[in-house]
Design goal:
By secondary structure, this protein is of the alpha+beta class. The chain is built from eleven helices and 17 strands. It has a single domain, classed as 4-Layer Sandwich (Chorismate synthase, AroC fold), CATH 3.60.150.
């Protein structure tokens, strides 16, 4: 089973991920991972730390001569800011100076809930791990998985569809056009007019000492029918995607396909009619192998009954405005129990454009996990053989 775990703190020496169950023989390059790490650091509204960190990956195990070995893959992203925090984050015995204690929990963060859970009164033990800095190495894992998916004709990309009250209009753009326009935009929005208004909203929020959230759409193309399962609740593909995305800091909602909009219209406006043709030219863009069955609409977002149906997997993730901001909120000191105004701190104003890259990574990992659960083998060659047998069977269905 494909799985991974991460380790490291926001101001520690590095973020680390160990990926187990990754098959042998998959072409892997650090440059592909670094491309996504760079994308995660960009975006209009990012804060000062992105000027300090220059994220690149070190592949410390599991890859030799440009191909995976089948052994656990270790990915490391160094924290350049660590030198400033070396004394504060030292693992050596001894109590940190009181000046370094964080006893004032920030509203909207994990500080207070985490301190209550772990019985500590220095919130640094919580905030260092709760920080979105951890997503850097998640993006590295997702980029690794994208390299596996690409071997089977699958691709995953994201774009911003909303920031604050501003919603983009795609006006029948193709998937390729959406991706190209989004990557050329400072807010990763394919609608240039909406992108300019989004930048204005971010600038206005910054001027008010506030922050702003939004929504990203993630599209996975070339996904074959049959990933996920209906037999056990924990194996449903939509459930796995929702869990992975909801684990991203600041994500407060996930939709697959029509999502919440489906609750407000009749069933006749929701369910996708099924058609059949051996002519792949009739299939919608981004379609994956599905034995000739296809749908002209994709309100289901490519998943029915917890199983991919051959249409592109399409979902939305909603990010709240981040809680670290210049406009102070009230809180209570953990030790003195006295009220205070939360510290003013210059940070990100909007993380939505970068957040889309993190959601991409989560989707790529879940799809790779489901793909290997269906077609898994110890090597790329074995998986390719298994996949070919499945496609042959579908073509004869």
């Amino acid at each position: 089973m494909l799985r991974y775990s991460t380790a490291g703190e926001s101001h520690g020496p590095q973020m680390t991920a160990i990926v187990s169950g990754f098959p042998a023989g998959v072409p892997v390059t650090a440059s592909e991972i670094n491309r996504d790490l760079s994308r995660r650091q960009k975006g209009y509204g990012r804060g000062g730390r992105m000027k300090i960190e220059k994220d690149t990956v070190e592949i410390l195990s599991g890859v030799r001569s440009g191909k995976s070995m089948g052994s656990p893959v270790t990915l490391v992203v160094r924290n350049l800011d660590y030198e400033t925090w070396r004394e504060v984050m030292s693992p050596e015995p001894g109590e940190p100076e009181e000046a370094h204690h964080v006893t004032r929990p920030r509203p909207g963060h994990a500080d207070l809930a985490g301190c209550l859970k772990y019985g500590c009164k220095d919130a640094r033990n919580i905030l260092e791990r709760a920080s979105a800095r951890e997503t850097a190495v998640r993006v590295a894992v997702g980029a690794l998985c994208k390299q596996l998916l690409s071997e089977f004709g699958m691709a995953v990309f994201s774009h911003v569809v909303q920031i604050g009250p501003v919603i983009s209009s795609l006006a029948e753009l193709s998937f390729q056009e959406i991706q190209e326009r989004a990557e050329a935009s400072e807010v990763r929005c394919a609608d240039s007019a909406a992108a300019e208004e989004m930048k204005r909203i971010i600038t206005e929020a910054a001027g008010n000492g506030d922050t702003v959230g939004g929504v990203v759409e993630v599209i996975a193309t070339g996904v074959p029918a049959g990933l996920g399962d209906v037999m056990n609740a924990e194996d449903r593909l939509d459930g796995a995607l929702a869990q992975a995305i909801m684990s991203i800091p600041a994500v407060k909602g996930v939709e697959i396909g029509m999502g919440f909009r489906a609750a407000g219209v009749p069933g006749s406006a929701v369910h996708d009619e099924i058609f059949f043709s051996r002519d792949e030219g009739k299939f919608p863009a981004g379609h994956g192998p599905s034995s000739g069955f296809y749908r002209k609409t994709n309100n289901a977002g490519g998943i029915e009954g917890g199983i991919s149906n051959g249409e592109p997997v399409i979902l939305h993730a909603a990010f709240k405005p981040i809680p670290t901001m210049m406009k102070p909120k009230m809180s209570v000191d953990l030790v003195t129990k006295e009220p205070f105004e939360a510290a003013k701190e210059r940070s990100d104003v909007c993380i939505v454009p970068a957040g889309g890259v993190v959601v991409e990574a989560s989707v790529a990992f879940v799809l790779a996990q489901a793909f290997l659960a269906k077609f898994g083998g110890d090597s790329l060659t074995e998986i390719q053989s298994n996949y070919k047998c499945y496609l042959d069977a579908m073509n004869q269905y």
